[in-house]
Amino acid sequence: MQLNRRDFMKVTGAGIACLSLSQLGFDLKPLKAYAAELKIAGAKEVISVCPFCSVSCHIIAHVKDGQLVSTEGDPDYPINQGALCAKGAAMLSLTRSSHRVTKPLYRAPNSDKWEEKDWGWVIDRIARRVKESRDKNLQLTNTKGQTVNRLEHVFALGTSHMDNEECALTHQAMRALGVVHMDHQARI
Ligand code: SF4
Questions:
Q1: For a pLDDT cut of 90, what percent of the chain falls above it?
Q2: Residues 86, 120: contact at Cβ < 8 Å?
Q3: Cβ proximity of 50 and 160 under 8 Å
Q4: CA of residue 36 relative to chain centroid, distance
Q5: What pLDDT, on the 0 to 100 scale, is given for residue 40?
Q6: Which residues line ligand 1 (CB under 6 A)?
Q7: CA-angle at 183, arms to 179 and 186, nearest 5°
């Protein structure tokens, strides 16, 4: 962004005005607390557990009119003492962000466009492609003749927002197919 002299004076003037409020002795903490209170006024407080890793940090969730309106670390829980890592801190946007993709998107081979598809179409296609690959590539024995039943041509990649149970189910399903290469971002 390029600023001319006039813009620069406006921007720095606004910054100095904000700084001055606290520098002049105004205590801004009550104002901040009041703003936070407005968001959760009348909301039901629920203590919950972050599902994204086995640290199991506690979260204070606020629910209003059936909607999650705020999530924050629980300061009373001895394990996380109010802190959350980036994954836990993103809990609210996981449910509320306008950037969430809520429908399956498909990009055809060599295409540069995403197409919306329904879940039935997507699940059917994934199942068909996995079966084709497994039928063709499942390796029953290794070079020593030992049974391995492994499928090295399918790779499963999860997301940082798969919870513990989703990871367990995915792992079991992939192992049942013989898939040996899988990963997801479960690290903190
Ligand atoms: S993902 Fe982060 S916030 Fe959630 S339980 Fe693990 S360490 Fe805690």
A1: 58
A2: no
A3: no
A4: 23
A5: 85
A6: 50, 52-53, 55-57, 80, 84-85, 87-88, 188
A7: 145
Q: Is the pLDDT of residue 69 over 50?
A: yes
Distance 84 CA to ligand 1 centre (A): 6
- Nearest-CA residue for ligand 1 atom 2 is 85
Distances (CA, A) of 170 to 7, 167, 183: 54, 5, 10
Name, of 5-9, 36-40, 104-108, the range with top average pLDDT.
104-108
> Closest Cα to residue 127, out of 135, 137, 117?
135
3 band by pLDDT with thresholds 50, 70 and 90: low
The structure tokens listed for 136 are: 């063709």
Distance of CA 178 to the CA centre of its chain: 28
Residue bearing the CA closest to ligand 1, atom 6:
53
**49-74 in b/e burial notation, b at 16+ Cβ within 10 A?**
ebbbbeeebbbbbbeeeeebbbbbbb
Task: Output b/e per residue, 113-127; b: 16+ Cβ within 10 A.
Answer: eeeeeeeeeeeeeee
